[in-house]
Design goal:
This protein is an alpha+beta fold and 656 residues long. It is 32% helix and 25% strand. It has 20 helices and 29 strands. The strands form 9 sheets. Strands 2, 3, 4, 5, 10, 18 and 19 form a 7-stranded mixed β-sheet that branches. A 5-stranded antiparallel β-sheet has the order 12-11-23-22-21, with helices on both faces. Helix 3 crosses helix 4, helix 3 runs antiparallel to helix 5 and helix 9 runs antiparallel to helix 19.
Length: 656
């Protein structure tokens, strides 16, 4: 007999099953909650922040370039650019059509940009504020404006070859802009932005000025630069030269006060100029220096004491047959003393003087002056010139180098070497950077004068200065003289090499290199005119007068005028152009009744620097006559002058 089985309590079973299910679920929820709030909390927080925020990299303002007085020569202005996010644009055709109307662009070109499978495309960069405002008002889907910076050069072509330029992405491309790009360029500034569900930025986090920005302060003097460029331009046009160059150098420190080249170009539209026009001829071009090189021949023989007092050199009435070649003088001479060889620039005399030196002695002296190697100036693209090794010299090489043939130099090499010849024998590294400052104006780095080496003795330099003074007083450099100023210098007229061999009969380089000896600091000025197309194309006839005009202006800019009393200007090497006795004050100018019009102030009694300050404020086309203090002007005081209009100012002690 079977006992009846106990019936299953399905209600209890279901309750237990549900309870077990809920218990498992609770455990899983607790584990999940633990992972979310404890184990994975940091990772999930970062993921949420990433989804909610975005980082925009805003272009930073590039550092300024300023002249030695703090005048801005290059700055970055805030501009607007238009960009699009093609993936967010639904009505691409309508958007392209509307943008084409606003930006005056080709609709097909814009449509092509809209169809690109990219998250970001530039539509048009550096647009005017009016255009940017029109784009904003149009409120086009996926089209936005951004703030960028555009490089601006307020003086257009002034010191163009020294400054160089920066491209659309604020990267230096040439000149100082390239050489100091590491200092001037600032990395894009990261800015955190909150975004909405569609990914659009709705709120930017506040940010301050980027502390890494640096400004470049130059040794250039804007006013001296202006005068040098004006006089060089006039000279190039007058003698119909292919090109020209001029350098003003502080002989006692190596600071470059002006560097000018013609032809030149407008830095604000640099892309319109050819590479040849943009090339810095002062460091990248070499030339045979001609008779200016006799300075270094003279320095070498004097330093080695190879010339006897009263020694004469037979210059053979202008023709010397030397080792199978004929050496000529433009003006025939008989017997000349050492000083007279330099004063009258006799090639034959120079050859005979060179015979007192061995190849190795002459080569060693020239390398000491820096020829055959770069000066390491802070400009890109410098070339070392050509000085062959003595082992490669022919029987004519030493003689040819003695009067500036068979060797090539750059203008900056010649300028630095001449400074060493007349400053006591000290070769300084030429430079344009004075100091670099941060956004607070604190000096980060300063460029102190760098003495490369001593090349000749003090006594040799003094003796050479006395010879070069006679060149200006009684010799080929008479046109370089400035009344009341102690001027020394040397002329140069060099035939250019002919591509087919030998030297050209009608292509010359005319030059003059000299110094103002009684100014403080002593100033070296080089003027070079390439391939002048006039009959009288010697350095003494066409380059020396330009030196004189520039020299007068340099003295005038120091606040004085040439006198017979000796000391002409008293300035400091650290603040060139401001005199000890004259404090330059800002001259107030008033705006005229119309736009871009000014009421011309009375300029009488002002020196050239003060007048240039006024001209800079009213942006006129100024031309100066004479040197010293202003005595007249045209138009008259009180006249209404439009920006860009001509203004002529006369100074006491006008040049004849």
């Amino acid at each position: 007999m079977y006992r009846n089985a106990k019936p299953i309590n399905w209600v209890s079973f279901r309750i237990a099953f549900v309870a077990f299910f809920f218990a498992v679920g609770t455990v899983l929820l607790l584990v999940r909650a633990y992972r979310l709030h404890v184990a994975d909390a940091e990772m999930l927080k970062k993921r949420a922040d990433k989804q909610r925020t975005m980082v925009l990299h805003l272009e930073a303002r590039r550092g300024m370039i300023l002249d030695r007085s703090g005048e801005q020569m290059a700055a970055s202005l805030e501009v607007h650019s238009v960009y699009a996010r093609p993936r967010r644009i639904s009505e691409k055709s309508r958007t392209a059509k509307r943008l084409a109307e606003i930006l005056e662009m080709d609709q097909k070109t814009l449509m092509g940009k809209m169809l690109e499978d990219k998250a970001f495309v530039w539509i048009q960069r550096r647009v005017s504020p009016l255009i940017a405002e029109k784009v904003k008002r149009a409120d086009l889907e996926g089209v936005f404006t951004a703030t960028e910076y555009q490089r601006f050069y307020p003086f257009k072509d002034l010191a163009a070859h020294a400054l160089g330029f920066a491209g659309i992405d604020s990267s230096g491309l040439e000149g100082l802009e390239l050489g100091y790009d590491v200092d001037l360029k600032v990395d894009p500034i990261p800015v955190t932005a909150q975004r909405d569900a569609l990914g659009r930025p709705v709120m930017l986090a506040a940010f301050g000025q980027d502390p890494k920005r640096r400004d470049l302060h130059l040794t250039l003097d804007r006013n001296i630069q202006y005068v040098v460029e004006r006089e060089l331009q006039d000279a190039v046009l007058k003698v119909k030269a292919k090109s020209g160059a001029a350098i003003v150098l502080n002989a006692d420190t190596g600071e470059i006060l002006a560097l000018a080249i013609r032809p030149t170009y407008n830095l604000n539209v640099f892309s319109k100029a050819s590479a040849g026009v943009r090339r810095n001829r002062c460091v990248a071009d070499t030339f045979e220096p001609g008779s200016t090189f006799k300075v270094f021949l003279a320095a070498t023989v004097l330093d080695l004491d190879r010339v006897s007092p009263g020694e004469k050199f037979d210059c053979l009435n202008g023709l010397y047959r030397y080792n199978g070649a004929e050496i000529h003088d433009i003006v025939p001479h008989g017997r000349l003393s050492f000083d007279e060889v330099m004063i009258h620039s006799s090639n034959i005399g120079a050859v005979k003087i060179s015979e007192k030196l061995s190849k190795s002695e002459f080569y060693r002296a020239l390398t000491g002056f820096g020829f055959g190697s770069i000066t390491s100036i802070d400009l890109p693209g410098e070339r070392p010139g050509l000085l062959p090794l003595p082992s490669r010299w022919s029987v004519l090489t030493k003689a040819n180098i003695g009067f500036g043939q068979g060797i090539s130099v750059t203008p900056i090499q010649l300028c630095a070497a001449f400074a060493a010849a007349i400053n006591g024998g000290f070769l300084y590294k030429p430079h344009l950077m004075k100091r670099i400052t941060n956004v607070l104006g604190e000096t980060v780095r300063e460029n102190s004068p760098v003495l490369v080496r001593r090349v000749i003795k003090q006594s040799t330099s003094q003796r050479l200065v006395s010879v070069l003074r006679q060149v200006v007083q009684d010799g080929t450099g008479k046109a370089a003289a400035i009344p009341g100023v102690d001027v020394v210098g040397k002329t140069g007229t060099a035939q250019k090499a002919d591509p087919s061999g030998g030297y050209s009969e009608d292509r010359y380089v005319a030059s003059f290199v000299g110094a103002l000896m009684d100014t403080k600091p002593r100033v070296v000025i080089l003027v070079l005119l390439d391939e002048p197309a006039v009959k009288k194309r010697t350095g003494g006839k066409i380059a020396a007068p330009v030196f004189s005009t520039i020299g007068r202006a340099v003295v005038g800019l120091c606040g004085g005028k040439p006198t017979e009393s000796g000391l002409v200007a008293s300035t400091t090497a650290t603040d060139y152009g401001k005199t000890d006795t004259i404090q330059l004050q800002g001259i107030p100018v008033r705006k005229g009744p119309g736009p871009r019009e000014w009421i011309l102030p009375d300029l009488k009694g002002l020196d050239m620097r003060q007048v240039l300050d006024v001209c800079g404020k009213i942006k006129c086309d100024a031309s100066f006559q004479g040197s010293g203090l202003a005595v007249g002007q045209e138009p008259k005081p009180g006249s209404i002058l439009k920006e860009g209009a001509p203004l002529t100012v006369s100074f006491d002690g006008q040049a004849s």
